[in-house]
Amino acid sequence: MPEKTDKLGNHAIVIGGSIAGLLSARVLADKFERVTITERDQLPETPEARKGVPQSSQPHILFARGYSILEALFPEIGKELHAAGAIPIDWAREFHHYNPGGWNATAESASELVSFTCTRPLLEWTIRQQVSQLPNVRFLKRCRVIGLLCNPSRTQVTGISVRHLDESTTDELSAQLVVDASGRTSQAPHWIENLGFTPPPATVVNPFLGYATRRYRISPGEQSDWKVLLVEHTPPHNTRLGYLAQVEGEECIATLGGYGGDYPPLDNEEFLAFARSLPSPKFYETIRRAQPTSPIQAHRATANRMYHYERVNLPANFVALGDAVCALCPVYGQGMTVSAMSAMVLQDWLGRQKANSHAFNSSRFQKRLAQSNAQSWLVATGQDSRFPTTQGASKPSWFTRLFRGYTDRLVQRTHEDAELHTHLMEVAQMVKSPAVLFHPQVVLKTLLEGRRSESVSSWEK
Q1: Which DSSP letter does residue 184 get?
Q2: CB 150, CB 315: distance < 8 Å
Q3: What average pLDDT score do residues 8-27 get?
Q4: Cα separation values, 38 from 44, 160, 163, Å
Q5: From CA 406, how far away is CA 20, in angstroms rounded?
Q6: Using CA atoms, how far apart are residues 81 and 88, in angstroms rounded to an integer?
Q7: pLDDT digits (tens, 9 = 90+) for 121-162
Q8: Rounded to the nearest 5°, which phi and psi values hold at 102?
Q9: Is 410 helix (H, G, I), strand (E, B) or coil?
């Protein structure tokens, strides 16, 4: 008798070796005999930026939710990140957030809102090292996927066509499941159309946000009790922001951003002048005294874009996830965590399949993924839509306006109430549902105590 197995198939292919692809491969490795990750780049042996991730020099935020998923998939990854120089952060205590009215109050005791702050190349390299140790996963480097293979009746994807970039040759790889994790440059809508299917419609909300980033070395005597510092933009009129984070190598990564085409300059003096224009001088004073260690690098591919795969019929055995489906404006730091959550949707979906399945229901997966992405999409596009220059902005409903008014007041209260700030971070870090902000005690603190403070302040004047 043939040996029983809980595997779903012999071979699965992941298109793209970035974080979404690596996490997908980790999940697939539990369910398939072999997993192949195809990647256009020659993947570096050390934590270095690579061509396929043009935004790698810009800051990347690993939310507490994203880190908890990494720990579940790779139990040793915290030790590996720490050993490589990544810096542990407690977001309730060591994240300093400036918004209209001042800086947030910080928690006195340790919280569970923990992750690491580091550069994107270091995080991706550390995850790749973990995936590389899986015995049934291999990397196919320097190859570009040029299309999908399908069965004669065009109902199921059966593999991919690839072009090997070094030899200029083409090849075909068969698989029981193909996962597109190729990011913002995904060509999957065209591949699907070439098979005779309707490509997914896309929604684009473009706030015309531009970044400029530089690395600095800050002397230990200059560093304070923060590990990440944010001077936030405030729609509809305050278009500028500043983000400063400690990273490995005793350096900080400093990013300036501007909405509506108010792009930060790449000249040193003008970069500093832009920083000086922020509503708090803390960002400017920190980098003014620091030593630059890199050139200033720009990034402007920041539009929110959603492919609605959940609205179209798809061939079986093909799914898409990560930025290939839901690419968010990076200012909100959700991207890597959304990719990690996508991998969890994939894991759950695969867990519902029968061993040796011949057809995986792609549409069912995409519908579940759309539900997972919905909140992050609403956060990013809702905030970006508050700028009058945003293209494709959505009109807020009365409920949205009411919710914004409430959260704006809550944010104001976080200047003096560390507990409210922790609740806000729990939601922002995707650890808890927004419902936590409507707990009776939170509402009482936000509305009644806020009004009492305003009354006292008015009386004192």
Answers
A1: G
A2: yes
A3: 97
A4: 15, 10, 11
A5: 34
A6: 9
A7: 999 999 999 999 999 999 999 999 999 999 999 999 999 999
A8: 145, -170
A9: helix
Give the strand pairing for 9-15 and 32-39.
parallel
Summarised one tens digit per residue, pLDDT across range 185-224 is 999 999 999 999 999 999 999 999 999 999 999 877 666 7
**What pLDDT, in 10s, does the model give residues 332-342?**
999 999 999 99
Q: Are strands 228-231 and 95-99 parallel, antiparallel or unpaired?
A: parallel
How does 78-96 read in b/e, with b if 16+ C-beta sit within 10 Å?
beebeebbbbebbbbbbbb
Question: Residue 29 is encoded by which pair of tokens?
Answer: 């490795």
Cβ neighbours for 105, distance < 8 A, ≥ 6 positions apart = 414, 415, 416, 417, 418, 421
Residues 423-447: pLDDT tens digits? 999 999 999 999 999 999 999 999 8
Percent of the chain having pLDDT more than 90? 83
**Is the peptide bond preceding residue 236 cis, with omega within 30 degrees of 0?**
yes
The closest alpha carbon to 9, from 342, 354, 321, belongs to 354
Distance CA 60, CA 294 (A): 17
Residue 104 token pair = 């947030």
Give the per-residue pLDDT at 187. 97
For residue 38, give the 3-state DSSP assignment: strand
AA identity, residue 258: G
What the chain holds in terms of domains, given with CATH numbers, is 9-51+121-204+304-380 (3.50.50.60), 208-299 (3.30.70), 398-460 (no CATH)
Token pair of 301 as six digits? 């591919």
pTM for this one? 0.93
Q: How do beta strands 177-180 and 169-174 pair?
A: unpaired
CA distances in angstroms from 94 to 89, 181, 227, listed in the order given: 6, 33, 5
What DSSP element (H or E) covers 150? strand 143-150
